[in-house]
């Protein structure tokens, strides 16, 4: 309906001055819609949130200004004011209805603007989905042997070899594939060296590494990374100042101990609190500067081999059986914790107001998990207390250790010779990328390409090595695939891996290794038998839970101790057999990429700040431990005769360090008790966790970016 026109000044007379507002004519709603839509889309196109808010405010202000306009105060009636008025703004009866829109028309205009805004947002979301799909498809790439060989010669710019091996279409296809790999692929030598060192470390234990400096060509034997960093400091002229005031001498960290003793008559292990704190910060600064130059002097390809001499032979000659209680403790560090348990050594946590007591190794883990502090973040007093704890522990254990674990009568010389012969194997040390390329071409009988790449002497040498080693040779394809997966995992956090089975070519999405092993069981015929007596049906592990519920009306949570123990044994046997066939069905080159869907549930939306004490706990699992500390949740160890009371989150760590037992080695009673402790702990956490770590009030759009 039409709005009533404002009364004229003639009819109002003296009361005309009280009317300071009147309804002003509005523009055509269609033109308004076009103007507002253009302004809004111009701001939205730049994806600038601030600009978008400013446009919204201006738009609302214009709507108010056009609907209600303030007039100047009316002093008197005069024809001069009406004559000076713009004729375009004078309303006439003919266009009066068109210029003065109704509230319903204004509402329709705003509704159209909102619908246009929603349509634009829907288009933006569709663009995001299309972009993510392109990224997902680019990540999902399976390398082939031909692509790996193409990249090897492509980085060396050997166009003559590429022309001989591939036609033009294949070369262009491989060039596109190289761009879709998803990460920057370094030289084959660097990737191979990185892969080779990791593989050798799996078989060679407690041996010193030998590296070759790229600047001075010296060979450096090292048992830890600090040795290489100190050598880097000599080239970069990084020195540490003496911690004693007014000394001014600068030196490498390895000479600091002797300097303090000779020039300042101070023992390195008995410094004052301030000097000890200053020394730890100085060493941390030195190693941090040297670490930035690691790839310049000691890149992965600078690794040569492992030394024949082991780092510490005495620990390997210790009898793992405790003379006091007869328990087998096979891990070297666990033996020290075992001796501390016999001697009842227990130290208080060095953080104020914390009553936790244990050995130094457990205290170090406790400070990291509960207090979220590393050793380098401790204060001067806390660092000194921790150092005193370690010194006292090492001295006591050193005096009493061999009363519990004695040396065996084995011959250490024979062991060293056997280890040396094993490391001299050509399969371990003499495989190079050039040999892998030679094998690739030799297998395909490309004699013309071999003659173009290698001279006659090298060809004979490589041919003899291939005959000696047989077919067991590290392929260049596996090296590329292995490196690519490692590099992608650094940038894609919490992603679901996609693998392609080499037999059935089915794509498997795996959050853990067990997802791949379950698929391997279908090919190898490995099945789990039903644990109910008299049934004997075989099935996959994923179907076992449903079988017990549907056929035997036996819920998984209601199994007794014998049934639960038998179930664990059955699953363990299945996974152990299937794991041996991992490289047959899912070798490194079977990795395709990462899925867009991320691993992680509602824990990522929890506020990391504790409501009770204000401490920041950023690790999800550490929050459960933190809440258990507040609630004083303690449980008794599941092993008979052990009266140790611990946090439920650390039961498995306690079994490993104190009793040298894995979960698979527990008896039926111990396993059932561990299951009960876990179930009770989870119920308490489900009820109490969000009283200490509630959900965040505001969640950034990054959390939902993958679901748009």
From TrEMBL:
Transmembrane segments: none
Basic and acidic residues bias (residue ranges): 103-127
InterPro entries cross-referenced by the UniProt entry: Znf_C2H2_type
Residues covered by region (Disordered): 71-140
Gene Ontology molecular function terms on file: DNA-binding transcription factor activity, RNA polymerase II-specific; RNA polymerase II transcription regulatory region sequence-specific DNA binding; zinc ion binding
Cellular component aspect of the GO annotation: nucleus
Compositionally biased spans, kind Basic residues: 128-137
Keywords noted in UniProt: Metal-binding, Repeat, Zinc, Zinc-finger
The keyword Transcription belongs to this UniProt entry's keyword annotation: no
Domain C2H2-type: 211-235, 240-264, 320-342, 347-371, 499-523, 528-552, 608-630, 635-659
Matching PANTHER family: AZ2-RELATED, ZINC FINGER PROTEIN 142
Name this polypeptide is given: C2H2-type domain-containing protein
Organism listed in the record: Steinernema hermaphroditum
